[in-house]
Protein backbone atom coordinates (compact mmCIF):
# COMPACT_ATOMS: atom_id res chain seq x y z
CA UNK A 1 0.00 0.00 0.00
CA UNK A 2 2.90 2.33 0.66
CA UNK A 3 3.93 2.12 -3.00
CA UNK A 4 0.54 3.54 -4.01
CA UNK A 5 1.57 6.65 -2.06
CA UNK A 6 5.12 6.71 -3.41
CA UNK A 7 6.69 5.37 -0.24
CA UNK A 8 9.89 3.43 -0.88
CA UNK A 9 10.55 2.34 2.68
CA UNK A 10 8.44 1.77 5.76
CA UNK A 11 8.41 4.17 8.66
CA UNK A 12 6.58 3.91 11.94
CA UNK A 13 3.82 6.40 11.08
CA UNK A 14 3.06 4.98 7.61
CA UNK A 15 0.25 2.69 8.72
CA UNK A 16 -1.55 5.58 10.44
CA UNK A 17 -1.04 7.78 7.36
CA UNK A 18 -2.51 5.11 5.08
CA UNK A 19 -5.50 4.38 7.32
CA UNK A 20 -6.19 8.08 7.73
CA UNK A 21 -6.46 8.44 3.96
CA UNK A 22 -8.66 5.34 3.65
CA UNK A 23 -10.94 6.65 6.40
CA UNK A 24 -11.23 10.00 4.62
CA UNK A 25 -11.98 8.24 1.35
CA UNK A 26 -14.77 6.31 3.06
CA UNK A 27 -16.14 9.42 4.79
CA UNK A 28 -16.28 11.41 1.55
CA UNK A 29 -17.32 8.40 -0.56
CA UNK A 30 -14.29 8.85 -2.79
CA UNK A 31 -13.66 6.30 -5.50
CA UNK A 32 -10.61 4.17 -4.65
CA UNK A 33 -9.03 4.04 -8.11
CA UNK A 34 -9.76 7.66 -8.97
CA UNK A 35 -8.39 8.91 -5.65
CA UNK A 36 -5.04 7.21 -6.15
CA UNK A 37 -5.04 8.25 -9.82
CA UNK A 38 -5.57 11.88 -8.80
CA UNK A 39 -2.80 11.68 -6.20
CA UNK A 40 -0.50 10.19 -8.84
CA UNK A 41 -1.09 12.90 -11.44
CA UNK A 42 -1.50 15.62 -8.79
CA UNK A 43 -4.94 16.55 -10.10
CA UNK A 44 -6.72 17.18 -6.83
CA UNK A 45 -10.00 18.62 -8.03
CA UNK A 46 -13.66 17.78 -8.54
CA UNK A 47 -13.86 15.58 -5.46
CA UNK A 48 -15.31 16.57 -2.09
CA UNK A 49 -12.44 14.70 -0.45
CA UNK A 50 -9.81 17.01 -1.90
CA UNK A 51 -11.72 20.13 -0.89
CA UNK A 52 -11.94 19.11 2.77
CA UNK A 53 -9.76 20.59 5.49
CA UNK A 54 -9.14 17.04 6.69
CA UNK A 55 -7.58 16.12 3.37
CA UNK A 56 -5.45 19.26 3.36
CA UNK A 57 -4.13 18.24 6.77
CA UNK A 58 -3.47 14.71 5.56
CA UNK A 59 -1.77 15.99 2.40
CA UNK A 60 0.64 18.03 4.52
CA UNK A 61 1.56 14.90 6.49
CA UNK A 62 1.99 12.93 3.27
CA UNK A 63 4.22 15.58 1.70
CA UNK A 64 6.33 15.70 4.87
CA UNK A 65 6.61 11.90 4.78
CA UNK A 66 7.71 11.98 1.13
CA UNK A 67 10.40 14.50 2.06
CA UNK A 68 11.89 11.95 4.49
CA UNK A 69 12.93 9.83 1.51
CA UNK A 70 16.07 10.18 -0.54
CA UNK A 71 14.19 9.46 -3.79
CA UNK A 72 13.41 12.34 -6.13
CA UNK A 73 9.90 13.49 -7.02
CA UNK A 74 10.39 11.82 -10.40
CA UNK A 75 11.16 8.49 -8.73
CA UNK A 76 8.17 8.88 -6.41
CA UNK A 77 5.92 9.61 -9.39
CA UNK A 78 7.26 6.58 -11.27
CA UNK A 79 6.58 4.29 -8.29
CA UNK A 80 3.07 5.64 -7.99
CA UNK A 81 2.41 5.21 -11.71
CA UNK A 82 3.38 1.53 -11.64
CA UNK A 83 1.36 0.99 -8.45
CA UNK A 84 -1.88 2.80 -9.36
CA UNK A 85 -3.76 1.98 -12.55
CA UNK A 86 -5.02 5.00 -14.43
CA UNK A 87 -8.05 3.09 -15.64
CA UNK A 88 -9.98 -0.04 -14.67
CA UNK A 89 -12.80 -1.91 -16.45
CA UNK A 90 -15.80 -0.19 -14.90
CA UNK A 91 -19.09 -2.05 -15.18
CA UNK A 92 -20.96 0.77 -16.93
CA UNK A 93 -18.26 1.00 -19.62
CA UNK A 94 -18.20 -2.77 -20.14
CA UNK A 95 -22.00 -2.81 -20.36
CA UNK A 96 -21.89 0.03 -22.89
CA UNK A 97 -19.41 -1.92 -25.04
CA UNK A 98 -21.44 -5.12 -24.79
CA UNK A 99 -24.66 -3.36 -25.78
CA UNK A 100 -22.97 -1.83 -28.82
CA UNK A 101 -21.47 -5.20 -29.78
CA UNK A 102 -24.89 -6.85 -29.56
CA UNK A 103 -26.07 -4.27 -32.11
CA UNK A 104 -23.15 -5.11 -34.40
CA UNK A 105 -20.88 -2.20 -33.45
CA UNK A 106 -17.57 -3.56 -32.19
CA UNK A 107 -15.82 -0.19 -32.24
CA UNK A 108 -16.84 0.62 -28.65
CA UNK A 109 -15.45 -2.70 -27.43
CA UNK A 110 -12.26 -2.28 -29.46
CA UNK A 111 -11.67 1.18 -28.00
CA UNK A 112 -12.33 -0.09 -24.47
CA UNK A 113 -9.93 -2.99 -24.95
CA UNK A 114 -7.27 -0.66 -26.32
CA UNK A 115 -7.57 1.63 -23.29
CA UNK A 116 -7.50 -1.32 -20.87
CA UNK A 117 -4.54 -3.01 -22.60
CA UNK A 118 -2.14 -0.79 -20.65
CA UNK A 119 -3.97 0.45 -17.54
CA UNK A 120 -0.80 2.07 -16.14
CA UNK A 121 -0.06 4.19 -19.23
CA UNK A 122 -1.54 7.47 -17.97
CA UNK A 123 -2.39 8.68 -21.47
CA UNK A 124 -5.13 11.19 -22.38
CA UNK A 125 -7.21 8.49 -24.13
CA UNK A 126 -7.90 6.93 -20.73
CA UNK A 127 -9.46 10.07 -19.24
CA UNK A 128 -12.98 9.35 -20.53
CA UNK A 129 -12.88 5.86 -19.04
CA UNK A 130 -12.20 7.08 -15.49
CA UNK A 131 -15.65 8.53 -14.96
CA UNK A 132 -18.04 6.95 -12.51
CA UNK A 133 -21.52 5.88 -13.58
CA UNK A 134 -24.25 8.48 -13.40
CA UNK A 135 -26.22 8.37 -10.15
CA UNK A 136 -29.28 7.40 -12.18
CA UNK A 137 -27.56 4.25 -13.50
CA UNK A 138 -28.78 1.16 -11.76
CA UNK A 139 -26.26 -0.44 -9.42
CA UNK A 140 -24.63 -3.60 -10.64
CA UNK A 141 -24.89 -6.94 -8.94
CA UNK A 142 -22.20 -9.32 -9.97
CA UNK A 143 -22.01 -12.99 -9.14
CA UNK A 144 -19.19 -15.44 -9.28
CA UNK A 145 -19.86 -17.92 -12.04
CA UNK A 146 -17.55 -20.64 -10.78
TrEMBL record:
InterPro entries associated with the record: SelO (IPR003846)
Cofactor: Mg(2+)
UniProt entry keywords in alphabetical sequence: ATP-binding, Magnesium, Metal-binding, Nucleotide-binding, Nucleotidyltransferase, Transferase
Pfam families: SelO (PF02696)
GO terms of molecular function: ATP binding; metal ion binding; nucleotidyltransferase activity
Family assignment from sequence similarity: Belongs to the SELO family.
Protein name as annotated: Selenoprotein O
Amino acid sequence: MGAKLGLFNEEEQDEALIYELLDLMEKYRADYTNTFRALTINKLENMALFESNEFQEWDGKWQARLNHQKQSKTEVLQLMKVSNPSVIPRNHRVEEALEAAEKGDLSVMEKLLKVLADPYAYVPEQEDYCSLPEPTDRPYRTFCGT
